[in-house]
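Hi everyone, sorry if this is the wrong subforum. Our group has a chain we'd like a structural model of before ordering constructs, and none of us has done structure prediction before. Sequence below.
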Amino acid sequence: MRVQREGERERRQGRSIYKRSVELVRGFGARQMVDSNQMAASLSHSTYIPLPSSGSVGKFSEPETYSQLVPIHIVTQPSQLPNAFLVPSAESQLVIGFDCEGVDLCRHGALCIMQLAFQDAVYLVDAIQGGQMLVQACKPALESTYVTKVVHDCKRDSEALYFQFGIRLNNVVDTQIAYTLIEEQEGRKRSPDDYISFVSLLADPRYCGISYVEKEEVRILLRQDPSFWRKRPLSELMIRTAADDVRFLLYIYHKVMEKLNEYSLWRLAVRGSLYCRCFCDNDNEYAEWSPIPHIPEKLITEGIVPEEEILSVLNVPPGKMGCIIGRGGASIRSVKESCNAEILIGGSKGPPDKVFVIGAVKEVRKAEAIMRGKMLFS
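Answer:
Right subforum, don't worry. Here is the predicted structure as C-alpha cells:
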C-alpha cells in the first residue's frame, strides 16, 4: 500500500518518466528495491519494460510497479539484432514496440533511428551509421505477418520506409487507431481531427497513467534544431527519449487488446493496413502491398457483416487545394463533419496535390463527391 500511495503522489506531481523509473522494479516473481545510484549510472544504456504482474499472466498492474530492467542496444550492424527478428518465422512470432525518428520524417525527410522494443531489450537501429544495409536487414521483419509492430500513428513512419528504403510496413497495431475504436465501442464520439497524441495516451490511467514531461523538452529542442536526430554520437537524452517512445508500447498493446471486441479487432487490423499505405501513393494502386485483412469467419457466422473499408486517393488539380481546405480550414472541416471517414491532407510534408480518404466505401464515396463539388463550383 505504501508503494501505491507513493506512486499516486508522484503521478499527481507530474514527474517525468526518467525520474520515476529509477525508484522501483519488480519482476514476475521477485520484488526488490534497486539502488538509485547504480541505476543512475546505467540509465543511458538501460531502461524499464513493464511486465504482467506476478502470478497473473496476461494481467497488467501499475506499469512501473511491475517492470524489468533491460539493456538498450545501439545497433549499427545487422548481427546486433535478434535472429528471430532478422529471420521471421511462424515458429517464433514476435510482438514488438516500434517507432521511427528523423528529420522532418516523411518521404523526403531523413529517417535517422528505428526503435524496437522487445520484452527483454530495446534496440535503437541507427540508420545514419548503419545506412541502407542495416535498414534493409530489417525489411523482412517490418513486412512480415509473423512480427506484430505496435506503433502510435504509423503513417509518416511507413511513408519514410517506403520511399527511402522500399519497405512496405505491414501487420501493425496502431495504438492511436485502437484508442479511437475503443472510444467508439464504448459509445463515445469524437470530433473530426481529434486524434490522441502518444503523450496523452500514456497519461490516460486506463492505458498507462504515466507523465511524459521530457517529450515536451525534446519538442523544444527540435524546434531549435530540426536536425537533432541526425547528431552523432547519440547523446544520453537522445538514447533515453528514443527508448521512452517505445518501451511502454507492449504494455499499452495488452491493455487495448483486452478491451477490443472481435469486430473492433478486425477494424484495427484493416485500419492499420490502410494507414500504412496512406501516404505511400503510387501508380499501381498498392498492388504490391499485402492484402487487406478479410472479415473473420466468426463475425460472419454471428451475422455481423461489416461494410468493406478502403483507402481512396483524390487527385487535386493545381490551384484547387484551397477550395477543399477553405478559409481557416472551414471547408475541409465541414466535409469531415458530413462524412464518417478519415480525411487526410499531406500539408507541408506532402504530397501537396492529393487527399487521402479512409473509411467504409459509402462514406468514402460521399466525401469524394463533396470535395469534387467544391473544386468544380469554387
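For your construct planning: The domain at 2-271 is CATH 3.30.420.10 (Nucleotidyltransferase; domain 5). The chain is about 40% helix and 15% strand.
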